[in-house]
Amino acid sequence: MQTPAMSTSMAATPTTTRAVAPAPAAKSPAPRQYCNHLLPSATSHRRRRGSVVARSAKKRNPWLDPFDDGPDEEFDYQGMFAGGKQEEDPRPPEDPANPYGFLRFPQGYNPELDSLASKVRGDVRRACCVVSGGVYENVLFFPVVQMLKDRYPGVLIDVVTSARGKQVYEMCKNVRYATVYDPDDDWPEPAEYTHQLGILKNRYYDLILSTRLAGIGHALFLFMSSSRDKVGYVYPNVNSVGAGLFLNEMFKAPTTNLSDGGYHMYTEMLEWIGRPAKNVPRQPTPPLRVSISKKLRAYVEGKYSRAGVEKGKYVVVHGIASDSVASMKSRGDDDCLLPLEHWAQIAKEISSDDKGLKPLFVIPHEKHREEIEEEVGEDTNILFLTTPGQLTCLINDSAGVVATNTAAVQLANARDKPCVALFSSAEKAKLFLPYVEDKGSCTVIASATGKLIDIDIEAVKKAVKDFEPAPSFALA
């Protein structure tokens, strides 16, 4: 009974083997079978490649950071914000009915919301003024600051200028911050450059004004401040290429030296700020005015009292030839300092009268004290001042001012004090004192040869005789 069954199973086995096994003709040659046995398959290659990448990612490269010892076992990597960004503030709801996609901002961004009416009107809440030049240029910038205050009531005005220019803004009550940064430096330190740029970005200005002639470099500096409106002067030559792309409004300077414009060097900027708008008439250009504090006035009064003069009984002498950067001369007039020999003759004429007036020499550096004592006399009254604010207080308490084309001339006219202004030419006098015809207290004496050293000293002596001591008031 078992024999047929066994034969049946044995007969079925070869048949099954032939059906499953491939035909002999379809088999590859022996060498190809040997190569296929050695080469990995595609699946095994991908698996092995992934394992190699995983192992190499975990391996530390000592050349990247030799002090990296791996993850810190004591550090809590599962603390706050371990899963990603922190939760954002609730954003305003979207308006699906608005066809313009109102408030459709990407996730994770919460923009600053400003008044739409303020944007349409162009209101300015915070303004920054980047002022180029020294003391003279910063003093003449005061009308621009005042026009900003008149045009946008309540505006907060900041100033960025050099260390010499910062001292000017102790006389301007409309300035909130005066930051020291020299915009005229063509190669600033990278750390100082990025630090100042961060200050401008963090204050969120609506308007930034610049009086430095801009090329593409300075225009990019203004652009990176993230201010809404960027306004400034550009070079009148090929150096201005590309600068206008980063400015909302630009003014082309007539020359490469903006100070050549004299008193009206910022006319284009004043016209743009005071431009008429809807229901807003043109803003009139304010005159140059400076203010002084009671504390500063008391400090300067103590200084000139120790120098040997009394209030209202001295004449300020300013404009001595010096190589000091604190001479307060304008960049638009290089020939504006008179040698000490000429000042000695003028000083003797002031003190020779019976009015009791004394000349008070204002020096920009202490090294000139001995020179004046040798030339004029040891009993000469000399005062060393460090800031334009102190000079303004000194002029305000004086009987008058005799000076060359320095900041003292503009400060004397701003405080309505009698002044004798000495210029190298009549053209320079008209350029820097165009309003002198409206001021009877200012006398202009210009050199006939175009050089200040050739000025008529006799005419100056005659003009200084008109100074009168300031009246003093005593309370009963």
Automatic annotation (TrEMBL):
SUPFAM superfamilies xref list: UDP-Glycosyltransferase/glycogen phosphorylase
Signal peptide (UniProt feature, chain positions): none
GO cellular component, one term: chloroplast
GO biological process assignments: photosynthetic electron transport in photosystem I
Gene3D superfamilies according to UniProt: Glycogen Phosphorylase B
Region feature Disordered, mapped onto this chain: 1-69
Bias (Basic residues) ranges: 44-61
Residue stretches of biased makeup (Low complexity): 1-31
Protein name: Photosynthetic NDH subunit of subcomplex B 1, chloroplastic
Species the sequence originates in: Setaria viridis (Green bristlegrass)
